[in-house]
Amino acid sequence: MALRKDFLWGGAVAAHQLEGGWQEGGKGISVADVMTAGANGVPRRITNGVIEGENYPNHEAVDFYHHYKGDIELFAEMGFKAFRTSIAWTRIFPEGDEEEPNEEGLKFYDDMFDELIRHGIEPVITLCHFEMPMGIVNKYGGFANKKVIDLFVKYARVCFERYKDKVKYWMTFNEINNQTDWKSDHHLIQDSGIIVSDEQRPIQEQLMYQAAVNELIASAQATLVGHEINPDFMIGCMIAMCPVYPATDKPEDIMMHVGAMHKRYWFAEVHARGFLPEHIVAYWQRKGIKIDISEEEKEILKKGTIDYLAFSYYMSFATAVQGENPGFDYDESRDLVRNENVPASEWGWQIDPMGLRYSLNWFWDHFHKPMMIVENGFGAVDTVEEDGSIHDDYRIDYLRNHIQAMKDAVDYEGVDLLGYTMWAPIDIVSASTGEMKKRYGFIYVDKNNDGSGTLERSRKKSFDWYKHVIETNGEEL
Q1: Catalytic-labelled residue, pool 115, 131, 175, 332
Q2: How far, in Å, CA of 470 to CA of 472, rounded?
Q3: Span 9-36, pLDDT tens digits
Q4: What integer pLDDT is reported at residue 324 of this predicted model?
Q5: How many CB atoms lie within 10 A of CB 88?
């Protein structure tokens, strides 16, 4: 089996890591706008509002807001069939709860989608990619508050109605399951808009689970609204897929792997199957976690299941049981161990192409939904030679091996795969560290961690390589 003839080859980004223009066109302040620059091993800080003198790399990012026409021309030169990006919620509803949307923000995406379509590139759009308005965070406490369900659905409805003839492929929430690591303040504000107070620390896990359930309800309700507006919409979820292997063949480690996969991927079970899985309900009962969900909301989950499953894949994890743990309850901050069988990047991300094939099979076996790989890439420090060339063979090797694993899952196991949009076709701000030097792109952007640089674009060696991959529909890597 070869890849389908209409396979969606392309690249993926997020608005807040790419666009810049953080105060232009009526845009409000998002959670990304109050995150400072970090570094390898140094987390980004979340400040109380925007503080003068701090370095907020997302404010300018790589200024796609003013460069999008030229950047899309470069994507078209590579032969892109699809471009996955997000709509910045704060461009449409600057505070998140306005009565009417911001027309200037809506028009920016009209113009950008028109430019993509003019070049034969399918927009693949995420509604909420770590972009929650700070107005919602400050006024409502993020998705821990059920009122935010209606605010999200209203925002989704506006986007669906406005772009119903321009966008076919949608995703609701990006990497909703990152908050499995609920002890991470970074993940809680990115995923759910939650800033945990000192008084809330004892119930931090409860807050995460309630917020996640509310997001799943919002996603299902938005999916129902979208299908009413245009029955031809393909509306999917987006899951961060890092398969968690057992560290050894000890039965206890095998069961620890089962517990880890339960904790990381119950979100996908709700998206795809429409109900809360028994294992997560049993965990809540065991831990005394009380979730506010009505029978009506359970019916929304049941009816609003996804059309396809989108996911990111960068690396695999491994786990081993730690002491007495009869429930094999996975704690991501405690139970991950190093897998000595695979190498790692400079940032400690384990490089495991076979894990992508495993992931495709795991999702296919569990849900039997069409899939799209919407993030897969290699962050590295690139060196610009004296003649301006950039020889990023390490990136080509990473992508070649992962694309081969993807093809093997189609050829050998028959998984149903719609497309592959690698992360990221152009250098952007790293979401995890806020760095520019952690580069992913085929297109180099002259910008440094401190914000200096000309923003000039140039092609790396991988640019022509990926162009040929698309030309041959993945037959020649």
Answers
A1: 175
A2: 5
A3: 999 999 999 999 999 999 999 999 999 9
A4: 87
A5: 29
What is residue 40's predicted lDDT score, i.e. its pLDDT?
Answer: 76
Task: Judge whether 213 lies within some domain.
Answer: yes
Domains identified in the chain, total number: 1
| Closest C-alpha to 230, from 280, 168, 140 | 168
User: pLDDT at position 322, please?
Assistant: 87
Each residue's pLDDT tens digit, 216-225: 999 999 999 9
Catalytic residue check, 175: yes
Q: What angle do CA 364, 366, 368 make, to 5 degrees?
A: 45
Taking 70 as the pLDDT cut, the residues of the chain under it are: none
476 lies in a domain?
no
- Catalytic annotation present for 115: no
What pLDDT sits at residue 46? 87
Q: What is the pLDDT of residue 344?
A: 84
Q: Which two tokens stand for residue 279?
A: 């294992």
SS3 letters across 343-397: CECCCCCECCHHHHHHHHHHHHHHHCCCEEEEECCCCECCCCCCCCCCCCHHHHH
CATH of the domain at 207: 3.20.20.80
Q: Helices 461-471 and 64-78, interaxial angle, to 10°? A: 50
Asked whether the beta carbons of 127 and 155 are under 8 A apart, the reply is: yes
Amino acid at 440: Y
**Spacing of C-alpha 391 from chain mean position:** 28
Q: Is residue 3 part of a domain?
A: no
In-domain check, residue 1: no
> Under a CB-based contact definition with an 8 Å cutoff, are residues 188 and 208 in contact?
yes
Quick one: pLDDT at residue 233?
98
Instruction: List the domain range (segments joined by +) for residue 114.
Output: 8-471
